[in-house]
């Protein structure tokens, strides 16, 4: 009950501060605003250090959208690419999301562990370099432990082992953090069972224990 009251307060403040922009003809409704705000604010329940302070607007597309950018390789070669995305943390001021993907997650129709709102807001927190919610934890030791978990996961993917986490998490450390965050909030009991040390690291970062929220350990669904 205490957490629910805090969440309601965070959501109210979020809706008052952030601008929602409909793209490609999408009309922003109260459902869209409330759904995104609730999922984003859930990640702040145990933190108490701001409300995505640099974020100004959330751009919402009806479905997945195309982004064109350039990739620079180690030899300096620049390659243009066009990607279809469901979400992107564009910069510290804007996050772009697909409403279709958000609605599917909210309805329980998306793949287990998938949540584009949580994924992109995790990128925001990671990019901001925010510290641990658990002030008693050693930040350097936490970073070393997370890096070790990432390396172990990459090694498992390289060996073509079946993994609990989406293999996409091996892309880089930023994607690893975002994918693990999705699992932490969507399938907390499963993550705790499959990767107890990793679950502990996420609990220290977010300052909350979603596996304890319901007898079955259900996440935000």
Can you describe what's shown?
With 221 residues, the protein is of the alpha/beta class. Helix content is 46%, strand content 16%. It is built from 8 helices and 6 strands, in the order H-E-H-E-E-E-E-E-H-H-H-H-H-H. It has helices spanning 2-17, 30-42, 99-106, 116-128, 139-158, 173-186, 188-194, 196-206, and strands spanning 19-22, 57-61, 65-72, 78-85, 87-91, 94-98. A 4-stranded mixed β-sheet has the order 1-2-6-5. It has a two-stranded antiparallel ribbon with strand order 3-4. Helix 1 packs across helix 2. The model has no long low-confidence stretch (mean pLDDT 90).
Characteristics:
two-stranded antiparallel ribbon, 8 helices, alpha/beta, 221 residues, 4-stranded mixed β-sheet
User: What does the largest sheet look like?
Assistant: 4 strands, mixed
What percent strand? 15-25%
Extract low-pLDDT stretches. none
The count of β-strands is 6
Shape: globular
Mean pLDDT: 90
Give the topology string: H per helix, E per strand: HEHEEEEEHHHHHH
Helix content: 40-55%
Annotate the secondary structure layout.
Elements: H1 2-17, E1 19-22, H2 30-42, E2 57-61, E3 65-72, E4 78-85, E5 87-91, E6 94-98, H3 99-106, H4 116-128, H5 139-158, H6 173-186, H7 188-194, H8 196-206
Parallel strand pairs: 1-2, 2-6
Antiparallel strand pairs: 3-4, 5-6
Helix pairs in contact: 1-2, 4-6, 6-7, 7-8
